[in-house]
Structures are given as C-alpha cells and as structure tokens.
Amino acid sequence: MKSTATFLAAAVAVGSAATAAAATPATPTPIVDPRNGVPWERLDKHDAMLVIVDFQEGLYNLARDWDPNLYRDAMMAHSSLATVFPMPVVLTTSAETGPNGPMPQEITDMYPGAPVVRRQGEVNAWDNADFRAAIRAANKTQIIVAGIVTDVCTAFLARSLRAEGYSVWANLEASGTTTKEIRDITNAALRCAGVNVVSLFAIVCDLMRDWRATPGLVEVLPWLDRHMPAYGMVARAHRAAVTAGEVPPGADRLPR
C-alpha cells in the first residue's frame, strides 16, 4: 500500500507540473540569422537578387491600398532596381492570357535576357518548377520581392522562400492589395515569419551602404531623382544653391 500511495503521489506531482508548464507561455524565440547570430541581416549587393511577381496590367486594378499613381511609380521603381545594382532578375506572371493580363512592356524591356516564368495555374510562384529552377540558378541567398497582391502573390512566395532557407526582403511600397487592413495584417504576419518588410529607400540604401561606393552617388542619385523625387529635389535644390544661390538678408543669422 505504501508503494502504491507513493506512486500515486508522484503521478499527481508530475501531472501538476505538466499542467503548470502548459499554462505558462513559452518564451518567444527571436528570429536570428543563423549565419551571423544577430537579429538584423544586411542586404549584400553581391548576394542579392530581384524578383518581380505578378506585376500585371489586370491585377494592377486590385492594388487599391495605395494611390494608383504612386503605386504605378512604386512598381516601376522596384522593377528597375537591378538597372542600378547589377544583380540577377527573375520575372513571373500568373495566367497572363486571362483577366490578369500581361506584365507592362516597360518592365519586361528592362531585362530582355532575364527569365520570365509564365505560370499557367500555380498561385504560389514557388509551386512552379521553372520558377524554382530560375531562383536556384541565380545562386543567391537574399531575395528582394514585391508583387500583386500582397496577401497572396508576395506573401505565399515570401513564406515559401523562407522555408527554403532564403533571406527575404519584401518591398512594402511595391506590393499592393485590395485594402489597407489586409496589407497591414499581411505584413505583420510576414515579419513574424522572418521576412524583412521594408521601404524602397531602405532597400536602396542598404544595397549601396556608402555614397562613395560603386554604385554610389553618381549612379544612385539620378535613379532617386526619377523614382524618389522627394530626395531628388533635395539634391536639385542643393545644386541650385551652390551654382546660382545667394544668402538673403537674415538667413546669414540662422544657426548652422
């Protein structure tokens, strides 16, 4: 009887401990890059590639979470990144002979030699064997991506790439979807999956890293003037001040 009582007491103790452990939430494990042990990985222009997903003339009309003029500019800016920073490019479309429509010619003309994977049915680009082969053939570990729509074309692919061990940078401004609420919840989920959800300017600056680099000021500034005029006009104003400007009365008393 004594041994039975001891056994029961031990069983109750183990059960109580298990119940307490189950009731205590596990400490979240921070997303850490296994290659360097830190939670922030920088873009490396020598190890990065650009992926353009389902920027199609029909699907463009679903990108309603951005101003349509700004979004078109963001699409073109994302697509042109590899014209400034030489890196592999893969383009893909989804059922382009139907309502989704073709990719704008302005984009395909940028990279006449790049692979264009025309998916006939796969929603997630990673499900297409030709697309997977094109990504693997580039032999890069960092992938910059954007697409229409954010919650499907960008998100499905970004998660699949993460599952395959790639580092992913999702261009926040160049992915569009039907509502701002869907965009926000999707990007939050992507961040939880270890995807870097960042701005176009962040991508450009991380690829460049130093204005004195190549590509650097000489190459990037004209690109910014075209695709990010807020910064382009800063440079123009500085040029005008240096070449033809003068200090008006009172301005010379302003703090430096």
From TrEMBL:
PANTHER family: HYDROLASE YCAC-RELATED (PTHR43559)
InterPro entries: Hydrolase_YcaC-like, Isochorismatase-like_dom, Isochorismatase-like_sf
Residue ranges of domain Isochorismatase-like in the record: 49-198
Gene3D superfamilies, alphabetized: Isochorismatase-like
GO molecular function: hydrolase activity
Protein name as annotated: Isochorismatase hydrolase
Signal peptide: 1-22
Family under the similarity heading: Belongs to the isochorismatase family.
Keywords, alphabetical: Hydrolase, Signal
